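Question (not urgent): is this output format expected?
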Amino acid sequence: MTTDPAPASAPGTPGVRSAQKQASRRALLDAALGLLERQNLSGLGVREVTRAAGLSPAAFYRHFADLAELGVVLVRESLANLHEMVRAVFAGSGEAELLIDRSVGVIAAHVAAHPAYIRFLARERHGGVKPVRDAVAAELACFAEELAGLLAVQPDTAGWSAADRRMLAELYVDRMVSTALALVEADGAERAAIARTARTQLRLINLGSRHWTAD
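Got this back:
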């Protein structure tokens, strides 16, 4: 006995409308990200974004209250994959040297795969749109908090206070993000030098942590 295929969704059904809405939202985010490779968010206009996305200005406001809200979404997308990848590295086992090498490799791979996002972060981390600056700071703070939790199970920091582990995590996060921002505009030879410097810096941080005693 054959079973008739399920009927395709009609254009006005909730599933189709939801897919169209998501496609429009994605088009706006991608259009803004492309434009932000050449300018700051504070200088961008809604009409520029909607024109690049092939949508009307009215469509923009069905998804975002303003460009600052769109920028906050881009911040979260910019750091989400890097956060997840580094978290996976530190959640694994291995000597500190191996974890550092893996981390730098993960950062380099992320920058190569998502250069537009990294350029956006480089411009907006200290840019003129406060909600976006605040979002970057909040995401990095969350990143450091999770990394501090992962450091708690590492032998060298297992007996540390939560505050000291958080301080070490912030040092690691700052170096990793700074490395990503440096890599995005570098060429092949420069990238290799930046990666070597990052490894050295992270090893120095790790070496210092091994001799750390709280006051």
